[in-house]
Amino acid sequence: MLTNTSIPSSTLFHPNIDGSYLMSKPVTNIVENTDGTMSFHFANDIAKQDIFCLTASSDTLRFLSDTDVKLKVTITNHSYQQYTRYVGAYAWIIENGEKILHEARAFKQLDLERGQQEVCEFTLTGLDDNTDYEVCLYYYKDSSTGTWTKIGEPYNLNMTDRNLFKLTVQDDEKITVLSDNTVKLEVTLHNESFMSYTRAVGAYIYKKVDGEWKIQQPRSFVSKDFDAYSDMKYDFYLTGLEKDVEYRLYLFYYQDGQTSNWTSIGESYSITIDDSIIPAKGDLNGDGQVGLGDIAEIINFMSGSSAIPKDLVDINCDGSVDVGDIMALINIMAASQANAARTTTAKPNDYR
pTM above 0.85? Predict the structure, then answer.
């Protein structure tokens, strides 16, 4: 319990008119919920224990067909008590600034404990093309359909948007320095589109010239088929970079399949290669050591499944990539292990 005299006390961010920061009302029954949020009673107002409150988060709205969509949300009960309530998704037609309730709607009954979350899916059918909709979530405050309360913000929708192609970057991107002039960008792109597409994705390097960021020649392109609402992993290799120079890397995709209409994906990445992060010869995956993973890089290149620059996997520098490079890499591994053995310091009791 927090009061004016407790340690810590209940205080305000801004002062009262008398200059004090004391809240002068107790905060009691402080409990951490399962989702990490906190619940409490303010001024010990027991009547407020019966207030029912839901929120929606982590929402996605996806097209299922030419006429149907699915809304997926996480519903959280922020109330002090457990409640059983209906939650409904409604579609409103937006026409000349007016909202008209559409017949498309879906309901789900939830039995949520205090602080409990549940992932819910609502399918709305029979929507028309060339019509603007607003999809809203509601819950019934008093366990009947007489009083409803909106949850969160509405979702704007037009069924013709299902034909748009859009890529987003997942939060697993990784940049690895492979040599004194080459970097690798590993990234997962998500197709947020209802349809499958074949699109080229490009990685571009920019360098500051005369105070302005200008595009440079090192660039990498990959063309792949994107299934609807799917993830696709990409590896981009950019070579010809200079040491100790700051670069910025941008990702683009071609919206209409042509190079004349490109759209950026996510934020830019800052890259600077210096001696401290340049890997040893043979460390093809940039993990800090020469091992079996690097042999796999050579095999993948030989099979055509890797776009790593040829000069990196041509370990013996004979102009071709073959078994000889694998043997050269094995020799590097053996030499590295021998050096490690020679530099090991023996303890006094090792030879007792």
Answer: no
